[in-house]
Amino acid sequence: MGSLPIALTCGEPAGIGPEIAVKARQILGAEVPFFWMGDPRHLPPHTAHRLIHRPAEAMAVPANELPVLAHPFAAPATPGKITYANARGVVEVIARAVDMVLKNEVAAICTSPINKKVLKDGAGFGFPGHTEFLAFLARVEQVVMMLAAPELRVVPATIHIPISEVPRQLTAEGLEATIRITEAGLRRDFGLTRPRIAVSGLNPHAGEGGAMGTEDARVIAPVVAKLASEGMAIRGPLPADTMFHPRARATYDVAICMYHDQALIPIKTIDFDGGVNVTLGLPFVRTSPDHGTALDIAGKGIAEPSSLVAALRMAHHMAEARVRQP
């Protein structure tokens, strides 16, 4: 696997995905071997690229050219303007990448941002997002979304649901599974022999003894106690408002948070451009830049590639960590 390239899916052709793929190649050169999957017509004009027919051929492409595994789409793409006819191609590229990684033809998958509404309206896409689709393709019942940057890793126990639904959907069983998948992923993909896990509370001050809600003592604390009794390095529930200053962050390797914004606000504040979306629990490595399609700036040449560069680097290091596993 260490000698295999990473498959970078095209994402939404009208977004910034194609142009930041080119920029990432210019920055990374031969440091991280990857190839881009999509329709060559969707790349920025005059892109120096070379068509390949098999993933392994990407390894021999000069560093100043972008290796491209072509996948035909229904129509050309205009930056910033959605073409629903291309939705089917976006879905096919993701599925094709998963097929390749399951066949050990690539080391990992890095996915460019998609427009979920476009995929739903244009291709009947029936999944909330990338993560759920990848889990379906891999036949995995539950996966975990982790956002990672050099200074912080966070995992939201509940993700894209209204805040009013969080207390109902936050269950002991679901939280325990999330923590176990996270701990195993940090061991396997990040080389941490005993990951230190901090678990936030749901309510202000972690419920303050029941004065501000019962979920912390009733749902979260028993899960933490159970896992700690098994030898896991875990603490909580902790007040979320004191978990993310520098001294606190130095005491753990990942923060398990109870809902979307509790996890994503701190990491996007600390490292907005360098955050990486990682899916834990899959039988393969998958990363993604932590931003959207940015249709409003697509094609203007100002899209920042830092998150994609970080996602490719992280996919490379995670794949290497799996190879090193005994």
UniProtKB/TrEMBL annotation:
Substrate binds at H130, T131, K268, N277, R286. Its cofactor is Zn(2+); Mg(2+); Co(2+). The keyword Transport does not apply. It catalyses: 4-(phosphooxy)-L-threonine + NAD(+) = 3-amino-2-oxopropyl phosphate + CO2 + NADH. It comes from the Bacteria. It is found in: Cytoplasm. SUPFAM superfamilies: Isocitrate/Isopropylmalate dehydrogenase-like. Catalyzes the NAD(P)-dependent oxidation of 4-(phosphooxy)-L-threonine (HTP) into 2-amino-3-oxo-4-(phosphooxy)butyric acid which spontaneously decarboxylates to form 3-amino-2-oxopropyl phosphate (AHAP). The active site is located at the dimer interface. Belongs to the PdxA family. This is 4-hydroxythreonine-4-phosphate dehydrogenase. It comes from Gemmobacter aquaticus. The lineage of its organism: Bacteria, Pseudomonadati, Pseudomonadota, Alphaproteobacteria, Rhodobacterales.
